Amino acid sequence: MALNLNDHCLFGFVQCFISRASKSCHHSVESEDGKTFFLKIHAPWEVLATYADVLKIKVPFKVNDIPENREIPVGWLFTPLRLPDHVMHPDPDYFTSSFDSNKHDFFLIEDKETFFPNSTRNRIVYYILSRCPYNKEDRLNKDKRGIKRLLNNGTYTSAFPLHDCRYWVKSRDPNCESERYSLYRYWARFFRFYKEQPLNLVRKYYGEKIGIYFAWLGFYTEMLFYAAVVGLICFIYGVATYDNTVWTKEICDKDIGGEIVMCPLCDKKCGFWKLNSTCNSTWQSHLFDNTATVFFAIFMGIWVTLFLEFWKRRQARLGYEWDLVDFEEEQQRLQLRPEYETKCTSRRLNRVTQMEPYFPVTSKCARLCLSGATVLFWISLIIASIIGVIAYRLAVFAALASVMKDSPTNKLELVGSLITPQLATSVTASCINFVIIMLLNFLYERVAIWITDMEVPKTHVEYENKLTVKMFLFQFVNYYSSCFYVAFFKGKFVGYPGKYTYMFHISNLRNEECDPGGCLIELTTQLVIVMTGKQVWGNIQEALLPWLKNWWSSRNARSHPESLYSRWEQDYDLQNFSQFGLFYEYLEMVIQFGFITLFVASFPLAPLLALMNNILEVRVDAWKLTTQFRRPVAAKAHSIGAWDEILNLIAVFSVVTNAFIVAFTSDMIPRLVYFYAYHPGTELTMQGYVNNSLSVFKISQISTESTPDPGENPAWYRDYRYPPGHEHEYSHTMQFWHILAAKMAFIIIMEHVVFVVKFFVAWLIPDVPSDVQARVKRERYLVQEYLHNYEVDKLKKQLNQKGEEGQCICPEIAATVKHEVLSECLT
């Protein structure tokens, strides 16, 4: 079914299904293939006016006379970024009020055909169709109503509003609006990436819900620019100090690192190795593990607060400009899901709506329990897959180390370059983990929709919130669990030579240690592969797949001239923009937001990668929505919904994760403790840090099950333990406890500092701009004043008309008029 917005008609497929509607618009249009039929259903002015009243749609009653005062002092600098005014602001600014079908002359109705914008008209018609019974004889049966049920049982193949004409060329037909062409020309092309978005035109064409998404995505991309610049500066600092780090020089020095023999990294198959073999990974680790890391982690904690607070202000301004200030209550009250009304067999008294459908508590609890058990099962499946990847890492590392032991370079020869077993294992495990993530995503999307449908939420908002929570919880565990493992578990429970810890107590699965360059570089590798892979795959999936599907479905019709390839057929050949289309767009961006906030201390370039992706994402989303997808049914939304709370939770959690990354994953705290408390002599220096951070072990004391081939004796390992022969042999030294205390102190101080700044910034910045508050109050005042004057004028006309006709004036009517008006009428 397709909506023709120019004549307020709805097209459908297969056959007529609503007998009452077919009487007013009883004709069908046969398609080019001779098998598909399109049904037109007319929605006259009376129907639009009636349901605009029911839905409390706001319409203009007076031109906005409040002067704008938002000029930027150096606005001329942004001239290259601006679009023509007729594109940015397609309609004048009006004061609006909820439509009342009994007060037509109160509103600014110049032309009934264009009074309701296209997005409003298709929303009204779809609202009717989603609740209209289609069985004439059994109209009280709630199972036989709504277009969704007809789509599910195959009576109709599709239902969608039509696009405006063609997008690649402006129509010569004066009756065909060219909003789609304007969107494509000024918004949906990649070479317009530096231009502002025409959000008012997006809202007018697609509705407020899609407009809010693109407003949020654009604002998020703008804010990423500042984070990307600071992250790039921190990375440049790491490169600039590349050659000035004492500990890396000691590791690479053949007389220091070349003389230190390290304990094997696995049992039996792994041999001894020289510390200077980790020279490259140590240099690479310094690029991200330096003093700028701490600064950037604190900066991102403040940045995320500024982003959320400024978005609230931006959202409030859009809410006023798009008439969404009082929308939430209206939506909760009116938009019951047809599926809920259909499946609820019980009724109960509601003080507001009188009798309403509801689910018994026992049925609701049973559904929630089954839903919760299903979610837990799938989360357990993710954890099991992560454990499988860890087991893979342990087995492959042992195999690669065995090969490395026989290599004269102690490294793997791969495509002409030397690769360490740690790096090879980390990269391949990250790639396998990414494939598992994408596979589980594909499966769980369908499971999440199924269990949410099973819960039968009451309203559309409740449905979206439930689905959002389930999908994000799954995605959170799916995407971030491997990063959490590398950041907070890998290398932390290894034990020491002679007393190693084993996974599930299996003798050949010894818990893996961090890369000799540190776990931070491994976390960076994991983050880059998963984050970049997700973004690249997402863009391919979003852009290339719809284009290929559309190209294939329209291959026969493309040979026909435009006059024989009708608008409804062209749109029918496009991909369907499902009710979850926007949901997946939000989910993709929120997952990206988690990557650049939760683990940003390990990779300062993450915001830069996100920025480059989002510049492309805005135009890809606009292009596919304008050219590759059918026009979605317009919907209203006053905010980004449950995603707002999720972003706030991520923002708070990110402070904790980054504090722990700096404290436990990075080597920053051990270096600072050595620099200030354990440096040799009276001069503050990092000389001798490498030897200080290692402990020694007698190879002869290793158990026979773990003994490698004969090698040097003794050997070194990374830890702070007393040497053999000491009274507290192999116990932790006092330096270990000092470092642990410093780590905990750093976490507490960093968290408190960032949280205090966050809450202060949140308190300092009001959620609603003062000028918006003033405008909202001004509009409400004017609505009351104009409505009052309208009623008074209307009543005066009634009184004058009755007086001229010699009729008796009802005292109850006269008493409702102001005293001065009453006196004038009586005179």
TrEMBL record:
<feature type="transmembrane region" description="Helical">
    <location>
        <begin position="375"/>
        <end position="403"/>
    </location>
</feature>
<dbReference type="InterPro" id="IPR049452">
    <property type="entry name" value="Anoctamin_TM"/>
</dbReference>
<protein>
    <recommendedName>
        <fullName>Anoctamin</fullName>
    </recommendedName>
</protein>
<keyword id="KW-1003">Cell membrane</keyword>
<feature type="transmembrane region" description="Helical">
    <location>
        <begin position="292"/>
        <end position="311"/>
    </location>
</feature>
<feature type="transmembrane region" description="Helical">
    <location>
        <begin position="744"/>
        <end position="765"/>
    </location>
</feature>
<feature type="domain" description="Anoctamin dimerisation">
    <location>
        <begin position="30"/>
        <end position="199"/>
    </location>
</feature>
<dbReference type="Pfam" id="PF16178">
    <property type="entry name" value="Anoct_dimer"/>
</dbReference>
<dbReference type="GO" id="GO:0046983">
    <property type="term" value="F:protein dimerization activity"/>
</dbReference>
<feature type="transmembrane region" description="Helical">
    <location>
        <begin position="646"/>
        <end position="665"/>
    </location>
</feature>
<feature type="domain" description="Anoctamin transmembrane">
    <location>
        <begin position="202"/>
        <end position="779"/>
    </location>
</feature>
<dbReference type="GO" id="GO:0005886">
    <property type="term" value="C:plasma membrane"/>
</dbReference>
<comment type="similarity">
    <text>Belongs to the anoctamin family.</text>
</comment>
<keyword id="KW-0472">Membrane</keyword>
<keyword id="KW-0812">Transmembrane</keyword>
<dbReference type="Pfam" id="PF04547">
    <property type="entry name" value="Anoctamin"/>
</dbReference>
<feature type="transmembrane region" description="Helical">
    <location>
        <begin position="590"/>
        <end position="612"/>
    </location>
</feature>
<feature type="transmembrane region" description="Helical">
    <location>
        <begin position="213"/>
        <end position="240"/>
    </location>
</feature>
<dbReference type="InterPro" id="IPR032394">
    <property type="entry name" value="Anoct_dimer"/>
</dbReference>
<keyword id="KW-0325">Glycoprotein</keyword>
<feature type="transmembrane region" description="Helical">
    <location>
        <begin position="423"/>
        <end position="444"/>
    </location>
</feature>
<keyword id="KW-1133">Transmembrane helix</keyword>
<dbReference type="GO" id="GO:0005254">
    <property type="term" value="F:chloride channel activity"/>
</dbReference>
<dbReference type="InterPro" id="IPR007632">
    <property type="entry name" value="Anoctamin"/>
</dbReference>
